[in-house]
Please model this.
Amino acid sequence: MNTIGILTSGGDCPGMNAAIRAAVFAAAARGMRIYGIQCGYQGLYDADWEELTPEKVDDIHQRGGTVLRTARFLPFSDAARRKGAIRQCIRNCRKNRDAAGNPNPIEGLVVVGGDGSFRGAFDLTKKNLPCVCLPGTIDNDIACTDETIGYDTCLNAVCAMVDAIADTARSHDRCIIVEVMGNMAGDLTLYAGMAAGAVTVVPEEGYDLPEQGEMSAEEVARFDGGIAQAIAAAKAAGRRSFVVLVAEGFTGKKDKNGRTRYPGGMEALAKRIQQLTGVETRADVLGYVQRGGKPSARDRILAAQMGARAVRLLAENQSNRVVILRGGAVSDLGITRALHMPKKLSAEDIALAKSLRYDSV
Ligand code: F6P
Model:
Protein backbone atom coordinates (compact mmCIF):
# COMPACT_ATOMS: atom_id res chain seq x y z
CA MET A 1 0.00 0.00 0.00
CA ASN A 2 1.51 3.35 -1.04
CA THR A 3 -1.20 5.88 -0.33
CA ILE A 4 -3.69 6.06 2.51
CA GLY A 5 -6.22 8.51 3.95
CA ILE A 6 -7.15 9.49 7.47
CA LEU A 7 -10.42 10.93 8.72
CA THR A 8 -12.05 11.80 12.04
CA SER A 9 -15.73 11.04 12.39
CA GLY A 10 -18.58 11.42 14.92
CA GLY A 11 -18.19 13.65 17.99
CA ASP A 12 -14.71 15.21 18.19
CA CYS A 13 -12.46 14.47 21.16
CA PRO A 14 -9.13 15.65 22.55
CA GLY A 15 -6.34 13.49 21.15
CA MET A 16 -7.68 13.20 17.62
CA ASN A 17 -4.97 15.59 16.45
CA ALA A 18 -2.26 13.56 18.17
CA ALA A 19 -3.55 10.47 16.34
CA ILE A 20 -3.47 12.31 12.99
CA ARG A 21 0.07 13.52 13.65
CA ALA A 22 1.31 10.06 14.62
CA ALA A 23 -0.28 8.51 11.53
CA VAL A 24 1.35 11.12 9.27
CA PHE A 25 4.78 10.57 10.85
CA ALA A 26 4.38 6.78 10.63
CA ALA A 27 3.33 6.99 6.99
CA ALA A 28 6.26 9.28 6.12
CA ALA A 29 8.69 6.91 7.86
CA ARG A 30 7.46 4.10 5.61
CA GLY A 31 7.58 6.22 2.45
CA MET A 32 3.78 6.18 2.19
CA ARG A 33 1.61 9.13 1.21
CA ILE A 34 -1.26 10.13 3.46
CA TYR A 35 -4.25 12.35 2.73
CA GLY A 36 -6.22 14.18 5.42
CA ILE A 37 -9.92 13.88 4.62
CA GLN A 38 -12.14 16.76 5.77
CA CYS A 39 -15.33 16.34 7.84
CA GLY A 40 -15.28 12.58 8.23
CA TYR A 41 -17.07 10.44 5.67
CA GLN A 42 -18.60 13.58 4.16
CA GLY A 43 -15.14 14.51 2.85
CA LEU A 44 -14.67 11.03 1.43
CA TYR A 45 -17.99 11.41 -0.36
CA ASP A 46 -17.06 14.87 -1.68
CA ALA A 47 -13.38 14.00 -2.40
CA ASP A 48 -12.44 16.83 -0.05
CA TRP A 49 -8.88 16.07 1.06
CA GLU A 50 -5.29 17.24 0.93
CA GLU A 51 -1.96 15.49 1.28
CA LEU A 52 -0.47 15.74 4.78
CA THR A 53 3.22 15.90 5.60
CA PRO A 54 5.07 15.92 8.95
CA GLU A 55 5.69 19.70 8.56
CA LYS A 56 1.97 20.37 8.16
CA VAL A 57 0.96 18.48 11.30
CA ASP A 58 3.98 19.01 13.50
CA ASP A 59 2.25 21.37 15.95
CA ILE A 60 -1.26 20.00 16.11
CA HIS A 61 -0.95 17.46 18.92
CA GLN A 62 -1.43 19.98 21.76
CA ARG A 63 -4.74 21.20 20.35
CA GLY A 64 -8.19 19.87 21.25
CA GLY A 65 -10.79 19.01 18.61
CA THR A 66 -9.70 17.82 15.18
CA VAL A 67 -7.92 19.83 12.49
CA LEU A 68 -9.59 17.60 9.92
CA ARG A 69 -13.03 18.61 11.28
CA THR A 70 -15.67 15.99 11.78
CA ALA A 71 -19.29 15.22 11.03
CA ARG A 72 -21.94 12.58 11.48
CA PHE A 73 -22.51 11.43 7.88
CA LEU A 74 -26.21 10.64 7.57
CA PRO A 75 -26.21 8.63 4.27
CA PHE A 76 -24.19 5.86 6.01
CA SER A 77 -26.94 5.35 8.59
CA ASP A 78 -29.78 5.47 6.04
CA ALA A 79 -30.38 2.05 4.44
CA ALA A 80 -31.74 3.61 1.22
CA ARG A 81 -28.70 5.83 0.65
CA ARG A 82 -25.86 3.75 2.11
CA LYS A 83 -25.00 1.65 -0.94
CA GLY A 84 -24.76 4.62 -3.31
CA ALA A 85 -22.76 6.64 -0.78
CA ILE A 86 -20.24 3.83 -0.29
CA ARG A 87 -19.86 3.43 -4.05
CA GLN A 88 -19.19 7.14 -4.46
CA CYS A 89 -16.56 7.14 -1.66
CA ILE A 90 -14.74 4.19 -3.24
CA ARG A 91 -14.87 5.76 -6.69
CA ASN A 92 -13.39 9.02 -5.35
CA CYS A 93 -10.50 7.15 -3.69
CA ARG A 94 -9.67 5.26 -6.88
CA LYS A 95 -9.71 8.44 -8.97
CA ASN A 96 -7.35 10.39 -6.70
CA ARG A 97 -4.44 12.16 -8.40
CA ASP A 98 -1.37 13.68 -6.80
CA ALA A 99 -0.40 17.36 -7.02
CA ALA A 100 1.36 16.71 -10.35
CA GLY A 101 -1.83 15.17 -11.77
CA ASN A 102 -0.60 11.57 -11.74
CA PRO A 103 -2.95 8.76 -10.69
CA ASN A 104 -2.49 8.16 -6.96
CA PRO A 105 -5.39 6.07 -5.64
CA ILE A 106 -6.10 6.07 -1.90
CA GLU A 107 -5.74 2.39 -1.05
CA GLY A 108 -6.53 2.31 2.66
CA LEU A 109 -8.08 4.39 5.38
CA VAL A 110 -7.51 5.21 9.04
CA VAL A 111 -10.82 6.10 10.72
CA VAL A 112 -10.82 7.79 14.12
CA GLY A 113 -14.21 7.82 15.82
CA GLY A 114 -16.83 5.90 17.75
CA ASP A 115 -18.57 2.64 16.95
CA GLY A 116 -20.94 4.34 14.47
CA SER A 117 -17.84 5.29 12.47
CA PHE A 118 -16.57 1.71 12.68
CA ARG A 119 -19.71 0.50 10.88
CA GLY A 120 -18.93 2.80 7.93
CA ALA A 121 -15.36 1.45 7.90
CA PHE A 122 -16.67 -2.12 7.90
CA ASP A 123 -18.83 -1.39 4.82
CA LEU A 124 -15.95 0.31 2.99
CA THR A 125 -13.61 -2.60 3.72
CA LYS A 126 -16.20 -5.00 2.27
CA LYS A 127 -16.07 -2.97 -0.95
CA ASN A 128 -12.28 -3.23 -1.08
CA LEU A 129 -11.18 -0.09 0.64
CA PRO A 130 -9.20 -1.53 3.59
CA CYS A 131 -9.84 0.36 6.83
CA VAL A 132 -8.32 0.38 10.30
CA CYS A 133 -10.21 2.16 13.11
CA LEU A 134 -9.05 3.99 16.21
CA PRO A 135 -11.49 4.44 19.11
CA GLY A 136 -11.87 8.20 19.55
CA THR A 137 -14.65 9.47 21.80
CA ILE A 138 -14.91 11.12 25.21
CA ASP A 139 -17.65 8.64 26.14
CA ASN A 140 -15.41 5.58 26.60
CA ASP A 141 -18.36 3.58 25.30
CA ILE A 142 -16.44 1.19 23.03
CA ALA A 143 -16.48 -2.22 24.64
CA CYS A 144 -13.39 -3.71 22.97
CA THR A 145 -10.93 -1.19 24.41
CA ASP A 146 -10.16 -0.38 28.04
CA GLU A 147 -9.95 3.25 27.10
CA THR A 148 -10.82 5.46 24.15
CA ILE A 149 -8.79 8.43 22.95
CA GLY A 150 -10.24 11.56 24.59
CA TYR A 151 -11.70 9.90 27.67
CA ASP A 152 -8.85 10.71 30.04
CA THR A 153 -8.85 14.43 29.15
CA CYS A 154 -12.61 14.66 29.49
CA LEU A 155 -12.68 12.75 32.77
CA ASN A 156 -10.13 15.15 34.26
CA ALA A 157 -12.08 18.14 32.96
CA VAL A 158 -15.36 16.85 34.44
CA CYS A 159 -13.66 16.10 37.76
CA ALA A 160 -12.24 19.64 37.92
CA MET A 161 -15.66 21.15 37.11
CA VAL A 162 -17.37 19.02 39.75
CA ASP A 163 -14.80 20.13 42.33
CA ALA A 164 -15.63 23.75 41.45
CA ILE A 165 -19.37 23.08 41.61
CA ALA A 166 -18.90 21.52 45.06
CA ASP A 167 -17.29 24.78 46.26
CA THR A 168 -20.36 26.84 45.44
CA ALA A 169 -22.78 24.12 46.64
CA ARG A 170 -20.92 24.09 49.98
CA SER A 171 -21.06 27.88 50.31
CA HIS A 172 -24.85 27.91 49.85
CA ASP A 173 -25.83 24.65 51.58
CA ARG A 174 -27.30 23.53 48.27
CA CYS A 175 -27.70 20.44 46.23
CA ILE A 176 -26.48 20.78 42.65
CA ILE A 177 -27.43 18.12 40.15
CA VAL A 178 -25.02 17.94 37.24
CA GLU A 179 -25.65 16.32 33.87
CA VAL A 180 -22.52 14.66 32.46
CA MET A 181 -22.00 13.63 28.82
CA GLY A 182 -21.45 10.04 27.76
CA ASN A 183 -24.54 9.20 25.75
CA MET A 184 -25.81 5.91 27.20
CA ALA A 185 -22.49 5.04 28.87
CA GLY A 186 -21.99 6.00 32.51
CA ASP A 187 -18.17 5.89 32.55
CA LEU A 188 -17.62 9.66 32.74
CA THR A 189 -20.34 10.08 35.36
CA LEU A 190 -19.25 7.18 37.54
CA TYR A 191 -15.51 7.79 37.53
CA ALA A 192 -15.71 11.60 37.78
CA GLY A 193 -18.13 11.06 40.68
CA MET A 194 -15.78 8.60 42.31
CA ALA A 195 -12.85 10.98 41.89
CA ALA A 196 -14.80 13.97 43.21
CA GLY A 197 -16.81 12.21 45.92
CA ALA A 198 -20.20 12.97 44.36
CA VAL A 199 -23.39 10.89 44.23
CA THR A 200 -23.72 9.27 40.79
CA VAL A 201 -26.60 7.79 38.79
CA VAL A 202 -25.76 5.77 35.67
CA PRO A 203 -27.86 3.69 33.27
CA GLU A 204 -25.71 0.62 34.03
CA GLU A 205 -27.21 0.43 37.52
CA GLY A 206 -29.99 -1.57 35.91
CA TYR A 207 -32.55 1.04 34.92
CA ASP A 208 -35.00 -0.09 32.29
CA LEU A 209 -34.70 2.78 29.80
CA PRO A 210 -36.88 3.07 26.69
CA GLU A 211 -35.29 3.74 23.28
CA GLN A 212 -37.98 6.35 22.65
CA GLY A 213 -40.18 8.23 25.08
CA GLU A 214 -40.13 8.61 28.82
CA MET A 215 -39.17 6.26 31.65
CA SER A 216 -42.05 4.51 33.40
CA ALA A 217 -43.48 6.13 36.53
CA GLU A 218 -41.94 3.28 38.58
CA GLU A 219 -38.46 3.90 37.12
CA VAL A 220 -38.81 7.64 37.74
CA ALA A 221 -39.81 6.95 41.36
CA ARG A 222 -36.85 4.59 41.77
CA PHE A 223 -34.53 7.16 40.23
CA ASP A 224 -35.76 10.06 42.40
CA GLY A 225 -35.88 7.82 45.46
CA GLY A 226 -32.23 6.75 45.08
CA ILE A 227 -31.01 10.35 44.93
CA ALA A 228 -33.31 11.53 47.75
CA GLN A 229 -32.18 8.66 49.95
CA ALA A 230 -28.49 9.42 49.38
CA ILE A 231 -29.12 13.07 50.29
CA ALA A 232 -31.17 12.17 53.36
CA ALA A 233 -28.44 9.82 54.61
CA ALA A 234 -25.72 12.42 54.03
CA LYS A 235 -27.86 15.04 55.76
CA ALA A 236 -28.38 12.73 58.74
CA ALA A 237 -24.61 12.29 58.89
CA GLY A 238 -24.19 16.08 59.13
CA ARG A 239 -23.57 17.12 55.56
CA ARG A 240 -25.16 20.33 54.30
CA SER A 241 -24.28 20.39 50.59
CA PHE A 242 -24.56 17.75 47.92
CA VAL A 243 -23.42 17.19 44.36
CA VAL A 244 -25.18 14.59 42.26
CA LEU A 245 -23.90 13.53 38.82
CA VAL A 246 -26.48 12.18 36.39
CA ALA A 247 -25.55 10.51 33.08
CA GLU A 248 -27.01 12.39 30.12
CA GLY A 249 -28.83 9.28 28.88
CA PHE A 250 -31.49 10.03 31.49
CA THR A 251 -31.96 13.78 31.22
CA GLY A 252 -30.15 15.06 28.13
CA LYS A 253 -30.86 12.75 25.22
CA LYS A 254 -34.08 13.66 23.42
CA ASP A 255 -36.17 11.35 21.26
CA LYS A 256 -37.65 12.45 17.94
CA ASN A 257 -40.55 14.11 19.78
CA GLY A 258 -38.18 16.15 21.93
CA ARG A 259 -38.76 14.10 25.09
CA THR A 260 -36.01 13.17 27.50
CA ARG A 261 -36.20 9.80 29.28
CA TYR A 262 -36.52 11.52 32.63
CA PRO A 263 -39.74 13.52 32.07
CA GLY A 264 -38.93 17.21 31.80
CA GLY A 265 -35.14 16.71 31.96
CA MET A 266 -32.78 18.36 34.42
CA GLU A 267 -34.99 21.25 35.56
CA ALA A 268 -37.83 18.89 36.46
CA LEU A 269 -35.39 16.59 38.26
CA ALA A 270 -33.97 19.42 40.36
CA LYS A 271 -37.47 20.55 41.37
CA ARG A 272 -38.44 17.03 42.30
CA ILE A 273 -35.33 16.46 44.43
CA GLN A 274 -35.92 19.76 46.22
CA GLN A 275 -39.50 18.67 47.01
CA LEU A 276 -38.38 15.28 48.27
CA THR A 277 -35.42 16.45 50.37
CA GLY A 278 -36.25 20.01 51.38
CA VAL A 279 -32.75 21.02 50.21
CA GLU A 280 -32.48 23.97 47.82
CA THR A 281 -31.53 22.31 44.53
CA ARG A 282 -30.14 23.61 41.25
CA ALA A 283 -29.58 21.91 37.90
CA ASP A 284 -26.38 22.27 35.87
CA VAL A 285 -25.66 20.85 32.41
CA LEU A 286 -21.91 20.80 31.75
CA GLY A 287 -22.37 20.59 27.96
CA TYR A 288 -19.74 20.92 25.25
CA VAL A 289 -17.03 22.36 27.48
CA GLN A 290 -16.49 18.69 28.39
CA ARG A 291 -15.50 17.78 24.84
CA GLY A 292 -12.97 20.50 24.05
CA GLY A 293 -9.62 21.53 25.44
CA LYS A 294 -6.01 20.44 25.27
CA PRO A 295 -5.55 16.67 25.39
CA SER A 296 -3.88 15.19 28.48
CA ALA A 297 -0.44 13.65 28.11
CA ARG A 298 -2.05 10.26 28.51
CA ASP A 299 -4.46 10.85 25.62
CA ARG A 300 -1.66 12.16 23.40
CA ILE A 301 0.43 9.10 24.10
CA LEU A 302 -2.45 6.66 23.56
CA ALA A 303 -3.37 8.46 20.32
CA ALA A 304 0.25 8.33 19.14
CA GLN A 305 0.55 4.61 19.87
CA MET A 306 -2.74 3.88 18.17
CA GLY A 307 -2.13 6.12 15.15
CA ALA A 308 1.26 4.54 14.47
CA ARG A 309 -0.15 1.03 14.82
CA ALA A 310 -3.00 1.75 12.39
CA VAL A 311 -0.53 2.78 9.69
CA ARG A 312 1.61 -0.26 10.37
CA LEU A 313 -1.42 -2.54 9.96
CA LEU A 314 -2.37 -0.95 6.64
CA ALA A 315 1.25 -1.13 5.45
CA GLU A 316 1.14 -4.85 6.23
CA ASN A 317 -2.12 -5.12 4.25
CA GLN A 318 -4.17 -5.89 7.34
CA SER A 319 -7.57 -4.27 7.46
CA ASN A 320 -10.99 -4.37 9.10
CA ARG A 321 -9.23 -3.98 12.45
CA VAL A 322 -9.81 -1.78 15.48
CA VAL A 323 -6.75 -0.69 17.45
CA ILE A 324 -7.42 -1.21 21.15
CA LEU A 325 -5.90 -0.84 24.60
CA ARG A 326 -6.10 -4.02 26.68
CA GLY A 327 -4.38 -4.53 30.00
CA GLY A 328 -2.06 -1.59 29.39
CA ALA A 329 -0.90 -2.72 25.94
CA VAL A 330 -1.98 -1.48 22.53
CA SER A 331 -3.09 -4.26 20.18
CA ASP A 332 -5.83 -4.79 17.59
CA LEU A 333 -8.97 -6.79 16.96
CA GLY A 334 -11.33 -7.58 14.06
CA ILE A 335 -14.09 -4.97 13.59
CA THR A 336 -16.84 -7.58 13.56
CA ARG A 337 -15.78 -8.86 16.97
CA ALA A 338 -15.29 -5.35 18.25
CA LEU A 339 -18.81 -4.35 17.24
CA HIS A 340 -20.42 -7.32 18.93
CA MET A 341 -18.86 -6.96 22.35
CA PRO A 342 -21.36 -5.80 24.99
CA LYS A 343 -20.34 -2.61 26.80
CA LYS A 344 -20.19 -3.03 30.55
CA LEU A 345 -19.41 -0.86 33.53
CA SER A 346 -17.72 -2.54 36.48
CA ALA A 347 -20.34 -3.45 39.11
CA GLU A 348 -17.51 -3.44 41.65
CA ASP A 349 -16.67 0.16 40.78
CA ILE A 350 -20.33 1.21 40.96
CA ALA A 351 -20.37 -0.23 44.50
CA LEU A 352 -16.99 1.35 45.32
CA ALA A 353 -18.18 4.81 44.21
CA LYS A 354 -21.16 4.43 46.58
CA SER A 355 -18.97 3.27 49.46
CA LEU A 356 -16.70 6.31 49.10
CA ARG A 357 -19.55 8.78 49.63
CA TYR A 358 -20.08 10.69 52.86
CA ASP A 359 -23.62 9.29 53.15
CA SER A 360 -22.37 5.70 53.25
CA VAL A 361 -20.40 5.90 56.49
O1 F6P B 1 -20.02 11.17 21.46
C1 F6P B 1 -19.63 12.21 22.23
C2 F6P B 1 -20.81 13.04 22.66
O2 F6P B 1 -20.31 14.23 23.22
C3 F6P B 1 -21.77 12.37 23.63
O3 F6P B 1 -21.31 12.37 24.94
C4 F6P B 1 -23.01 13.19 23.42
O4 F6P B 1 -24.15 12.43 23.73
C5 F6P B 1 -22.96 13.52 21.96
O5 F6P B 1 -21.60 13.39 21.55
C6 F6P B 1 -23.45 14.89 21.59
O6 F6P B 1 -23.49 14.96 20.21
P1 F6P B 1 -23.66 16.27 19.35
O7 F6P B 1 -22.32 16.89 19.17
O8 F6P B 1 -24.20 15.77 18.07
O9 F6P B 1 -24.60 17.16 20.10
About this structure: The domain at 3-149+295-339 is CATH 3.40.50.450 (Rossmann fold). The chain has two domains: 3-149+295-339, 153-291. Residues 11, 114, 137-139, 181-183, 248, 291 surround 6-O-phosphono-beta-D-fructofuranose (CB under 6 Å). The chain has a mean pLDDT of 96.
